[in-house]
């Protein structure tokens, strides 16, 4: 009897496994046509300087409007795109779109405004990544100084030397580099001095936990290393005031705006009037 039940469980497991496999395959197939079918789009989340009270940038966040499953969030399709290598073309598509949108965004937020783009480890590993990105910026008439590249800590785990070299080249060409989701990876703190970066983005889990001693320690450390800090995931007025008082360089989060289509972004003057954060 026990044996029978075991076998039944096995069959269920096996079926579920196969189903998963087919699902993934379909997912990949659909994703491979997403660019040509114009199913990808970008939403923006503003980056705000709480001391100057001005918008200083916006992060491009990728979305996929899939025919069979509706809007798919990046956390579920970017891993698939990375495994299959599709992220390379998708990544170039995002960079081009962000450049095109920068021309419109700077009209509202000023010419100091930077657009931030997330870059995957797989993209950085491309031999001609620096050349390709420079070509796209040239075609779109955007200077590298207007673009910030966000890399995650896990990116930097693999082949440190190659990453170091690519980032140095990018910086030499005028791009700024931000280390995303800081504090959540497995890297050592010494990487902060080894990697050619300009900014740290404190992961939103530290903000959500309200870990004030840790946040102020991260700010002090960043300042000693001459790195600017952006705090992610600011959702409340209390969090906003806390980071403003700590003179955090930039903040980002639902308190300022939820990621939105370009046309729906709040203007500089609307942020604390129509936005979530009425002060
Ligand atoms: P990320 O770069 O750390 O982006 C911040 C994520 O936090 C975004 O999720 C954003 O919507 C969310 N977020 C912002 N403010 C708040 C807040 O106040 N509260 C909460 N709970 N969440 C907030 P999203 O858009 O789902 O993106 C998830 C991740 O997907 C990004 O994390 C980034 O790593 C990746 N990603 C997005 N677009 C791209 C892309 O074009 N290329 C690559 N390679 N990765 C991307
Ligand atoms: Mg990011
Ligand atoms: Mg992040
Ligand atoms: Mg993240």
From TrEMBL:
<protein>
    <submittedName>
        <fullName>EAL domain-containing protein</fullName>
    </submittedName>
</protein>
<feature type="domain" description="EAL">
    <location>
        <begin position="24"/>
        <end position="273"/>
    </location>
</feature>
